[in-house]
Amino acid sequence: MASRCIACACVVAAAALLTACASPLEPPRGDGRLSARARPPGSGDVPASAYRAARAETGPLLGDAATTEDYVRYALYHSPEVESAYQRWRAAAERMPQARALPDPRADFEYDFRSDEAMIGAMQEFPWPGTLREREAAAMRGATSAWREFEAARLAIAERVTIAVHETAYLDAAIGITRDNLDLLSSLEQVIRARYRVGAGSHPELIRAQVELGELEDRLAQMLAMRPALVAELNAALNRPTDAAVPAMGRVAGRVVRESAAALAGVARGANPGLLALDERVEEQRRLERVARLEGLPGFGAGVEYTFLENDMGDDLDGDPVKLRLALSVPLWREKYNAAAREAMALRLAIAHEREGEANRVAAEVSRAWFEHTDAHRRVGLYERTLIPKAEESLRASLAGFRAGETSFLDLLDTERTLLEFAMSAQRARADRSIALARLNRLVGTMLPTEPEDEPTEDQP
Predict the structure, then answer these.
(1) Rounded distance, CA 380 to CA 254, Å?
(2) Could you give the number of structural domains in the chain?
(3) Domain of 424?
């Protein structure tokens, strides 16, 4: 009976050892370098987030004079899309300790009621050398790919916020320009009305001024009604209530890229996070192909077996046998291993071709965004340095001629309308320039070096 108690105690101890796992809610007790190994070299610290307050207790704030960069920082800190991509990276990183772990050991207990003998044993299996290393390397590549996708999500949110900010800034500028022109036209309408009362003005001129006033009032009402929609888009990107107040945007300083489209396309091919993520996935499949081939090689097992013997008197015999157990797995069904290797190879080739096509698309988008950026910069200079000053000079001359009775109201109205369109086009060009720059930053995968818009340029596109 003593041996039975010993055997039962050993079984209980073995079961406790096998089931003593940590709770999923407990912090990991594994390799502290896990997160660093799951990120590409030079990636820096993990960005702070409102969802991980322990890492950053206070986040960025937005004031009335917030810049585009302030809005972007706020959005990156509060964005659920960015946090989702970050958690996907964390999930991918947690596959690494799973991939490098040995199979669970197996404990056996056997009892023969006829001979009153008990046996307890344990066996640990080992795959072919190098299999676990390749599995972990494949998991590390997958985690690095997830980090690149996390970087792509951050750039996408930055672009989205920049577009929303500059669209709102354009609308606010357009509202201000329309109001100024409405005030000017209202004063002219009063002059024409006064002249008409004393018989110095014509009725058609008065009607035309009132029609033009109605059109401007309608345009202003439309823009004012549009602003809540743009504010809602901005607040959605900032993860705030859609009706949160956004102060009127002032003039946003413009920045200009001086690099050529070909140079930026070349940088994008090696720095775009989407392309880098595909590169990591190609290497992941290459490693999985090696894993499939290694799994087709024999595995090993080693263990011990202890047998409790008793004689007829119930006393333990001296020298209970201890046996060494060795095992060898025979990968007999070869087709499944060969099929797994072919599957990984096909996926690797598919992702490599996808990467090539994506690189071509990114290069084309970089060229398009570069053209939009430089063309918008050209239009800003054209309107603000040439057309608008000339239109303002023409309007001043027309106003003086109208007051002196030398210029008709229709000529004055045409001049005023031209200045209005030029001013609106200049603001539209400023917004387009910044939006194209945000798109270039996302495509290239980094914040591009820029210069202030008022820097002199040798060659304007």
Answers:
(1) 10
(2) 1
(3) 65-452
In a domain, 3, yes or no: no
Structural domain includes residue 459: no
CATH assignment of the domain containing 214: 1.20.1600.10
Query: Is position 321 within any domain?
Result: yes
Look at residue 136 and tell me if it is in a domain: yes
285-323, pLDDT tens digit by residue?
A: 999 999 999 999 999 999 998 888 765 444 554 556 888
Counting residues of the chain whose pLDDT is more than 70, the rounded percentage is 86
